[in-house]
């Protein structure tokens, strides 16, 4: 899968996504992540990419021309108009199901805004999806874009090793992860739950399932509405 990130801060995005798992997938050629500097496409003699808002008000607005031309350069290179996401608090909140859907795309363009926003007319022409990452205000779309790239990438086949993909399972069914323990068997007077040392895999699985359900009920009861539970599990809630 190929990510194309339209941004005024390409270094921030390239640095932030150079992590172990994502970086390894890029090296293996499973992913490519290209940060496109919007400023490289401005026709302004002074490399300006923003201007005052018509109608007045605080702040600056990112102009249509450099964004459109940067987007068009990507479209010309790949030969079709891919889904184009504008990162904005005005979109629906990103979730795991969206990550799984986006992971099916061959290309994805992520448009990062700054200042007071982007000229509406270019959004109308290029944006197919509006996405927020939660109800708080950030200074720009770069961190949200990195969040999306990470969450989508780990759903692309081959990005996670078998070891790493185990931990996708529980959220897939809308339940939180069960608690994990490693050596030593006793730490600060706290013992590892004995069932985990029993070697009885069926019992361990049943215990973990129960812990996942209990933990979800306690910490994220809102998720239980989506959880895939047996009739018995739902009755016992
Ligand atoms: Cl996608 N952008 C900005 N600027 N702030 C946000 C956001 C996005 N999602 C939550 N807050």
Would you kindly provide a written description of the structure presented here, covering whatever features stand out?
The chain is of the alpha/beta class. The chain has two domains: about 150 residues, Alpha/beta knot (3-Layer(aba) Sandwich); about 60 residues, tRNA(m1g37)methyltransferase, domain 2 (Trp Operon Repressor, Chain A, Orthogonal Bundle). About 35% of the residues lie in helices and about 15% in strands. It contains ten helices and nine strands. It has a five-stranded parallel beta sheet with strand order 2-1-6-5-7, sandwiched between helices. A hairpin with a 2-residue loop joins strand 8 and strand 9. Helix 3 runs parallel beside helix 5 and helix 4 packs across helix 6. The longest helix is centred in the last third of the chain and has 19 residues. It is elongated. The mean pLDDT is about 95. The protein binds 6-chloroguanine (6GU). The site of 6-chloroguanine (6GU) has 12 residues, from loops. It is found in: Cytoplasm. Its main location: cytoplasm. Keywords: Cytoplasm, Methyltransferase, S-adenosyl-L-methionine, Transferase, tRNA processing. Specifically methylates guanosine-37 in various tRNAs. This is tRNA (guanine-N(1)-)-methyltransferase.
């Amino acid at each position: 899968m190929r990510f194309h990130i339209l941004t005024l801060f390409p270094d921030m995005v390239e640095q932030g996504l150079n992590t172990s798992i994502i970086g390894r997938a890029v090296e293996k050629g499973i992913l490519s992540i290209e940060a496109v500097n919007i400023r490289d496409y401005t026709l302004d003699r002074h490399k300006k990419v923003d201007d005052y808002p018509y109608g007045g008000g605080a702040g600056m607005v990112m102009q249509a021309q450099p964004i459109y031309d940067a987007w068009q350069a990507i479209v010309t290179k790949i030969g079709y108009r891919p889904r184009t996401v504008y990162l904005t608090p005005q979109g629906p909140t990103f979730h795991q199901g969206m990550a799984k859907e986006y992971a099916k795309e061959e290309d994805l363009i992520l448009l990062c805004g700054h200042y007071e926003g982007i000229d509406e007319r270019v959004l109308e022409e290029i944006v197919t999806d509006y996405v927020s990452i939660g109800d708080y205000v950030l200074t720009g779309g770069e961190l949200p874009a990195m969040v999306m790239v990470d969450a989508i990438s780990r759903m692309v086949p081959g990005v996670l090793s078998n070891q790493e993909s185990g931990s996708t399972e529980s959220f897939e069914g809308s339940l939180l992860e069960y608690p994990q323990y490693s050596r030593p068997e006793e730490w600060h007077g706290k013992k590892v739950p004995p069932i985990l040392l029993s070697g009885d895999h069926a019992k361990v699985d049943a215990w973990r399932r129960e812990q996942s359900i209990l933990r979800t009920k306690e910490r994220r009861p809102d998720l239980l509405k989506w959880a895939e539970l047996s009739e018995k599990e739902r009755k016992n809630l």
